[in-house]
Predict the structure.
Amino acid sequence: MQLRLITALFIFVGSCLPLSLILLAQNLDYSRLQQDFCWKIWEEGCSLPLKNPNFALGIFLACVVCFAVTLIALAAVRPKHEIQLTQVKHVPADLMNYTLPYVVSFMSIDYQETGKFVGFLIFLGWMFWITYRSGQVILNPLLIAFGWRLYDISYHFVGDQTEQAGNALVHGHVAAGERHRQIAIQDILVVKANQSTDR
């Protein structure tokens, strides 16, 4: 199954949630935190203790919404094709490696540094295009917190003994010798190990 560009963009923006949270924290005006907090931001003279509140909160909320869409889309996926696993290797570090390096690299970016921020957006644009074209856009390290794991697997389809290999994003745990249903999203197999193969 090939992801549509807009769906892939939602997934990619959702993977930027940690980065948007870092940028939001860097945008806080810590000197204003000592003052009484004003909740009625619609009133004159009341505002959030952020240097660029609309921009910082807008990007953060967009990432939250996109990550929620990613979780909903993965919950809606219905694996169809039954496979027999022959070899299974859990590779937790690989899932982390797909998006976290650029998060650390750009921790010093600030919304108020226009030149750096534009360069950062260009970099993210290239990252999105590369991960989309390589079929890896669905790999989001935040999914680990929701029970997803990345595996290198060898398998064959039930009724066909041709051995195949690939990466599988698995909700739950799998082991060699088990049968599970999968669906390919670009170059990644999505397996829900907690779903019965009898359906």
Observations:
- The CA atoms of residues 40 and 46 lie 6 Å apart.
- The chain is about 40% helix and 20% strand.
- Helices lie at 5-15, 17-27, 53-76, 92-97, 100-105, 114-133.
- The chain has one domain: 5-99+110-192.
